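Chapter summary example: a protein plus magnesium ion.
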Amino acid sequence: MGTISHLSLLLFFTLTLSVDAKLNLDAADNHALITILEDLGVYGDLRRPDNLCNTAGIFCERRISNESYVLKVTGIVFKTQRLRGSLSPAIGQLSELKELSFPNNYLLGGIPPQIANCRKLEVLKLRNNKLSGEVPGELSALLRLRILDLSSNKFSGDLGFLKYYPNLEKLSLDNNMFTGKVPVSLRSFRNLRFFNVSGNSFLEGPLPALNQLESPSSGLQKTSYKRVPKRYILAESTSSSTNQTRNISSSSNNLQASAPAPSPMATPSKHKKSNRKKTLGVILGLFVGSIAGIISAIIFTVIFKLLVIAIKTRAKDSGPAIFSQSIKAEELAFLEDDDAVAALQIIGRGGCGEVYKTELPEGKIKTIAIKKIIQPPKDAAELTEEDTKYLNKKMRQIRSEIQTVGQIRHRNLLPLLAHVSRPTCHYLVYEFMKNGSLQDIIQQVNDGTREFDWPRRHKIAVGVASGLEYLHLDHTPRIVHRDLKPANVLLDDDMEARIADFGLAKSIPDAQTHMTSSNVAGTLGYIAPEYHQTMKFTDKCDIYSFGVLLGILVIGKLPSDEFFQHTSEVSLVKWMRNVMTSDNPKEAIDPTLLGNGYEEQMLLVLKIACFCTLDKPKERPNSKECRIMLAQIDPLNLVQSNDLHVD
Ligand SMILES: Nc1ncnc2c1ncn2[C@@H]1O[C@H](COP(=O)(O)OP(=O)(O)O)[C@@H](O)[C@H]1O
Ligand SMILES: [Mg+2]
């Protein structure tokens, strides 16, 4: 059975791939690509220049153009290939380009400003080349950039191109010749997790230090700074960090970085020449050394113990843990006041408590959603010592898992902004998603109050798959969601899917489940069949839930819809399977989507939904395969999807 379904999966891949194989590369892209490869200095070496999409390092995807399919270039990746050419301005003609990576080559010249036309560019890796000149200010038009790595080149000029990158997660500018100051606009890059500007000896003035990033205006937020986890890594080399400290402490004096003087500690003042003196010196040295050793050991032990005590005290502290630069601890002080919380607007009620909405007086994030998680009663008189120990352990576990979740940033995962721990509950603070959840939208569609076209549905499917892929395959340790469902897929301003409630299901009390049995995870209608036997939630259980979600997107009905009660299968998954193997599989498609020309694609998505919901977990694809399959059948991750508007 396993082999058969793997075969069918393979067949599916082969079919979609072979469809692509017959397609031609878009003429304009082909023309631009030839120029680009010529300028890079690789075109002459290609074996089959007639079919550039088959070249290693060139990635193409299917797109629709003039009502027919073509291949468009979405990625050019040449790592460590001894390239000695330059970056061609023709790059700007590749409108679908998502990745441009040439690390570890010998590329010369600069970044052509035309790159600003690649509006879909997410990854630009030019690390370790010989690129020079100023980075064009036009680069700031690339709002989708997630990774910008220009390190180890000879770029000069100021960092004026760092204007606004809302999606930027990683910024590496180290080891160049940049000048001027690091702009404070970095604070507005809400997804930035890492940046490195070390090894730029001509950068002046202070780096936006942690506290400055967090609280630019005044010193009054000092407490919030102390609690801010280290989200930005100011990865300075020893020399520049020495200067950095000096810069910050000497306010804004524009000190230039320079190599530090050799450490004075290590240098003995003079060598004695005579042997006797030498021996004496050695003995004295040993004596002084061991005394110094003992003293420093004592000092270290004391400091270490003090630190442990400080950490323990802080862990007991119920103050907020802040995970984002966009929010300040002071703004959440009201959560300490039960009356203030009771007065908040309730926007939803989940298995673990209410979800509130409130406005913040200042800061970038104006509206937040606060999820209350009620803890099991702690102070009941009949609690034994064992119970108390267990609960304390549970509390620590919750805190550490929340700490992990707080660090996670991915465009399809709803970031946790803060965590406030109270004696009887936890508050988790998120950005409020005004487009609501996928569940809300499906319900509105069924009520006839909203339209929900196929491109938007497809975009959500791909988004959820790539969020899952991050949790399952990119994050260590792997995170299994355990409660993937439309209510946990929220939609941001661009209608991009943001998976909510990930990473907490394990530690948060069982109340979070929506089932009657207190030990069961997940929500009825989305739980993989094997879970009932194994009681273990694996990544393949998430895939099953994802399959149900895909089914919902195409069928337009939730598993709880009355419709399924009136079918012989009484279940969305079984009904979907039967219709898909019947003579008329189109019957499964949401009637409001019929006649839109996307029927074939929707059937393909239903096919993936069927793969994901196969009974045997091993036969289901993994999240990466899901994402790839969905992206392959995407006909219009293009012009239209940019122009989508929420009704
Ligand atoms: N960040 C958010 N922005 C907007 N709405 C939210 C947010 N978080 C939760 N909600 C709403 O609150 C509801 C309840 O959330 P939750 O407690 O997680 O329960 P569930 O996910 O089981 O519905 C959600 O269905 C959603 O409509
Ligand atoms: Mg939820």
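Key point: The two ends are 45 Å apart (CA to CA).
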